[in-house]
Amino acid sequence: MIIAPPRFTLAPDLEISRIVTGLWQVADMERGGRELDRDAASSAMLDYARAGFDTFDMADHYGSAELIAGRMLARVAAGEQAGARRPVAFTKWCPAPGPMTAEVVREGVERSRRRLGVEAIDLLQFHWWNFDHLAYLDAMKRLDDLRREGVIRHLGVTNFDTAHLNVLVKHGIPIVANQVSLSLIDRRAAGEMSAFCLANGVRLLAYGALAGGLLGERWLGRRQPEEGEIADWSKMKYRRFVDAAGGWDTLQAILVALDQVAKRHGVAIANVATRWTLDHPAVAATIVGARLGENDHRQSNLASFAFALDDDDRGVIDAALAQTRSISGDCGDEYRKPPFLTASGDLSHHLATMPRLYAATPIDGRPERQRVSSGSAFEPIAGYSRAFRVGDRVLVSGTTATNGVDEVVCAGDPAGQTTFILDKIAASLAACGASLEDVVRTRVYLANADDWEAVSRAHGRRFGEVRPANTLLQVGRLIGGYLVEIEAEAVAPQEAKR
């Protein structure tokens, strides 16, 4: 008989439950200005903790989740859970893109720390809305400073794709976890992301294993819901994943297969879906949401550990999955292009208002021309611009993986440098009203021809659909010891004319 969920050592001093209780539903429950009773909600959290589900995940924008968790932790400190483990609290910091100064970063972390009432945050997970704004690296470096200071115990990220997770890891940021979607419907993280994590000591915290509840008996055999029948944000979000994977009939085929396996083991469909995700070797834990005070899934969650999937089970499931379409892109892509739904609803409108890293400046007397400066002291000395627009043409100068004045990003890692370079190029194009999708030519210069494949694959991640004209060269030497330099040319869309 299973009496408590198994545990996973995420870091030498951080042991967690293999099912983490997610609090994103707090935001949904507090829609319309309602605020949950913190004592009652924290009592529900204590019930989970006493049953061994003592690891909780939240974010700075999940309504009052941090305050409720802080109340629960205070009650534990006062002796209401004597003899048991101290619950573990994960939270996320999700700032708007902008300068990530030491003061800005500390303010964001201290807000969560005050709300939780802790000396150190167990796991601070960082989310970044737009990789074209390069300050994500500054933010992570300053979060690492706070980790060394003792304000944060461990660092994680959420919804980072493989390429940008690589940038952080290869730049020396100690990441222990990436929180991403992984389910029978959304299997993006099971490939390249998992391979990278296993090779680099990072683990996945998998959310969405139950697709917001759509992977459950309630929906087996149900007709496709009409518009408006699904009202909570979580199911609205995962309904989009169902549509991308093949539609309602595809979901029903998966549910039929899961039901067959579930009946064989005497468990629920949700248990089979959870078990499938937990069995991936890169997954440390799944995150299952709780509507505090409205329902209680402690006993039903335990059943996910009372059986194992065998080859026959996997054959039944794989046959259903063969009917699905693979969801395109890498992990987290849905948060960086519309429409996207989060625990706070559809935030697509934020994409249009995201601040740009660079700005284009008109040239006096030449209204058809604009130039972009990155602020480098060398630009006026050498007499060049980071990018230059004339009419519809946008030309981006040779770009290296330089952050700030003289910091080389991902020294020694050509793929990481290429990713960071393309972020800078994307930021330069955005200032001129263009994007990577508008690029018609790139030139890539390598210090070492042996790096061609790593660089080409990183280039292909961003340009695989655009496929501009491209030249790849080894040169005698790149100034500054860089491994890669890239220049680009784009034709801005007609509506972007100025």
Question: SSE layout and pairings?
Answer:
Layout: E1 7-11, E2 14-17, E3 19-22, H1 25-29, H2 38-50, E4 55-57, H3 65-80, E5 88-93, H4 102-116, E6 121-126, H5 135-149, E7 152-158, H6 162-170, E8 175-181, H7 192-200, E9 203-207, H8 233-245, H9 248-265, H10 269-278, E10 283-289, H11 298-302, H12 311-321, E11 341-342, E12 345-346, H13 349-353, E13 360-363, E14 366-372, H14 378-382, E15 387-390, E16 393-399, E17 402-403, E18 407-408, H15 414-431, E19 439-446, H16 452-463, E20 469-474, E21 484-491
Parallel strand pairs: 3-4, 3-10, 4-5, 5-6, 6-7, 7-8, 8-9, 9-10, 19-20
Antiparallel strand pairs: 1-2, 11-12, 13-14, 14-15, 15-16, 16-21, 17-18, 19-21
Helix pairs in contact: 2-3, 3-4, 4-5, 6-15, 9-10, 9-12, 15-16
Textual characterization of the structure:
By secondary structure, the protein is α/β, with parallel strands linked by helices. The chain is built from 16 helices and 21 strands. The strands form five sheets. The chain has an eight-stranded parallel beta barrel, surrounded by five helices. The chain has a seven-stranded mixed beta sheet with strand order 13-14-15-16-21-19-20, covered by helices on one side. Helix 15 (414-431) packs parallel to helix 16 (452-463). The protein is globular and about 75 Å long. The termini are far apart. 46% of the residues are buried. The mean pLDDT is 92.
Characteristic terms for this protein:
single chain; 498 residues; alpha/beta; 8-stranded parallel β-barrel; 7-stranded mixed β-sheet; 16 helices; globular
